[in-house]
Amino acid sequence: MSSTAMLSTEEIRARVEALGDWFHNLDLGGVRTAPNHFLYDYPANKFRRFAHAIPADLTGKSVLDIGCNAGFYSMEMKRRGAARVLGIDSDDRYLAQARLAAEVTGLEAEFRNLSVYDVGALGERFDLVIFMGVLYHLRHPLLALDLIHEHVADDLLLFQSMQRGAKTVMTPEADYPFSETAIFDEPGWPKLHFIERNYSKDPSNWWVPNAAASGAMLRSAGFAILDHPEEEVYLCRRAEAPWGAGAVYPAPGRDEKGSRA
Questions:
Q1: Nearest by Cα to 145 from 192, 185, 94, 204
Q2: Secondary-structure percent of the chain, ordered helix, strand, coil, rounded to 5
Q3: Distance CA 120, CA 147 (A)
Q4: What is the residue-wise DSSP string for 128-166?
Q5: Pairing of strands 153-160, 126-132
Q6: Is residue 102 classed as helix, strand or coil in its secondary structure?
Q7: End-to-end CA distance of the chain
Q8: 190 class by beta-carbon count within 10 Å (0-12 exposed, 13-18 middle, 19+ buried)
Q9: Cβ atoms of residues 109 and 75 within 8 Å
Q10: Rounded CA gap, 226 and 85, in Å?
């Protein structure tokens, strides 16, 4: 008997409501988790625009969903036959929502509280790493991509970030003289827009790339772009990291007595 059959619609609705506001609008046994979402049927409506770019058959493959939220993409990868799906997030409420979604749908996935900065602790690589909607919430976005490349990506990376600024993308020269300054004012030059306070009433928004910066950062971290099926979405393959790439690890801090923390 499936979990859906064991729970009535009223029971599912009560558990959905008990977990507070949802960002993923999922259909759990006929109960919509975020029916009034400001982005409408999100993220299903976005997924429809690039779903074709992901292998339709993931049988036997492993998937890591970084910043999994309520587990929409984790569930979709299980529907494509992935043998192992691990979703990580640093918000316990989102993880509880994802576990409820897995229970109701009967799609087996594992969910853990883990930051992208700590992916090295997993000690394993995955055939597909999903890194959707996380980059602009990070104070250290390029470090996150370096850590993914160094520790968990084995083949494919599915990446998405909110983008703002110019949509044009220029191809920079290999080098510029020190006297060249105008190039940085070109709309198509890769730029990260820093948010000191809030954006969209969200203090967790820190760095938002323009279109050129998204691609440039991926290449800089050692990811070859295979497909760009949607404005904000890139399907990449792990490649050799270029010069200068690699995760940086800070020295241990010291306590008030001068001992290592």
A1: 192
A2: 30, 25, 45
A3: 7
A4: EEEEES-GGG-SSHHHHHHHIIIIIEEEEEEEE----S-
A5: parallel
A6: helix
A7: 51
A8: buried
A9: yes
A10: 23
Kindly state the DSSP code that residue 51 receives in the 8-state scheme: G
Three-state DSSP class for residue 87: strand
∠ CA 121-127-133, nearest 5°, is 70
Torsion of Cα atoms, 193 then 196 then 199 then 203, to 10°: 130
DSSP string, 8-48: -HHHHHHHHHHT---SS--EETTEES-TT-TTSSTTHHHHT
Q: Closest by alpha carbon to 242, among 259, 261, 225, 224?
A: 224
Place of tokens 């853990």: 112
b/e per residue 121-147 (b: at least 16 CB within 10 A): eeeeebbbbbbbbbbbbbeebbbbbbb
**Cα atoms found within 13 Å of the Cα of residue 188, Cβ hemisphere only:** 6
Give the integer Cα–Cα distance in Å for 224 and 190: 17
pLDDT in tens, 22-62: 999 999 999 999 999 888 899 999 999 999 999 999 999 99
Beta-ladder partners of 27 = 32
- The order of strands in the sheet holding 110-113 is 110-113, 84-89, 62-66, 126-132, 153-160, 233-238, 223-230
Residue among 10, 132, 138 at smallest CA distance from 76: 132
In this model, does residue 2 exceed pLDDT 60?
Answer: no
Q: What is the pLDDT of residues 68-92, one digit of tens each?
A: 999 999 999 999 999 999 999 999 9
